[in-house]
Amino acid sequence: RIFSLCLLAYSINFLYIFYIQSIQNMKLANILTLLNGLVFPVIFVFIFSIIWNENGIWFAFVVSEIATLLVIYLYSIYLNKKTHGEYSGFFLKKHHDENEEMLEYTIHADENDALYLSQQVRDFLRDEKTAELVSLAMKELLIYILEINDNLDWIDVIVRDNDKSTIISIKHSGIGYNPQTDTELNSKHIDNLISISDNIDYSQILGLNNTVITIKKRDDYIFYGKKVLAEIIRF
């Protein structure tokens, strides 16, 4: 009966940890899991068992869940102040740049859909040089994902474009593909995309493969300089 008092807080914490994983905040998810599953229970069991004996053990789990919930709340306040409002609310909602545009598209496991989406991406991106490169690389990437997955239903793609960067997110089930480590696909266009990318994150969460590619905007000299340097290193 005492343990049942923690079920509401437990449910919120459980769902929140999965939510944080889904938005790629793995560091926070690991910290909360460690606090909730090990640190808080050990500390409070030790303290409350001395005060209330056996009942103290069950009270310890209740307080552990409440303490985890309190940590989440305090962290959301801290992050809001640290980022000057860029992240706000209990679920750390990020306020995007007012000049940012977003293309969100879900394709079926069909090559024609992949070709159509690559054309949409090329028309969507404002920088012509980046648009052409990203479009060609995404076409080959999507087709390759379809080839290695026989029973794939869909691929979810989100492209965000603002004055500072272009962010590409590709999410799907089945067999994953990491552009940085998987060498089965020999593609010049994907190699060029990797060479100009500032960061590529690949993760598998809740049965979904998620690849996030971030490209910072630069002038032409730096843009082509990285491509040329990548070609020289590969040669």
Descriptors:
235 residues; single chain; elongated; 2 domains; Heat Shock Protein 90; alpha+beta; two-stranded antiparallel ribbon; five-stranded antiparallel sheet
Structure in a nutshell:
The chain has 235 residues and is an alpha+beta fold. It is 56% helix and 19% strand. It has two domains: 3-94, no CATH class; 101-234, Histidine kinase-like ATPase, C-terminal domain (Heat Shock Protein 90), CATH 3.30.565.
Describe the overall structure.
This protein is of the alpha+beta class. The protein has two domains: 3-94, no CATH class; 101-234, Histidine kinase-like ATPase, C-terminal domain (Heat Shock Protein 90, 2-Layer Sandwich). Helix content is 56%, strand content 19%. It has seven helices and seven strands; from the N terminus they run H-H-H-E-E-E-H-H-E-E-H-E-E-H. It has helices at residues 7-22, 26-52, 54-82, 111-124, 128-148, 188-196, 220-234, and strands at 87-88, 93-94, 101-108, 154-161, 165-172, 199-205, 208-216. The chain has a five-stranded antiparallel sheet, covered by helices on one side. Helix 2 (26-52) runs antiparallel to helix 3 and helix 6 (188-196) packs across helix 7. It is elongated and about 70 Å long. It starts with 6 loop residues before the first helix and ends with a helix.
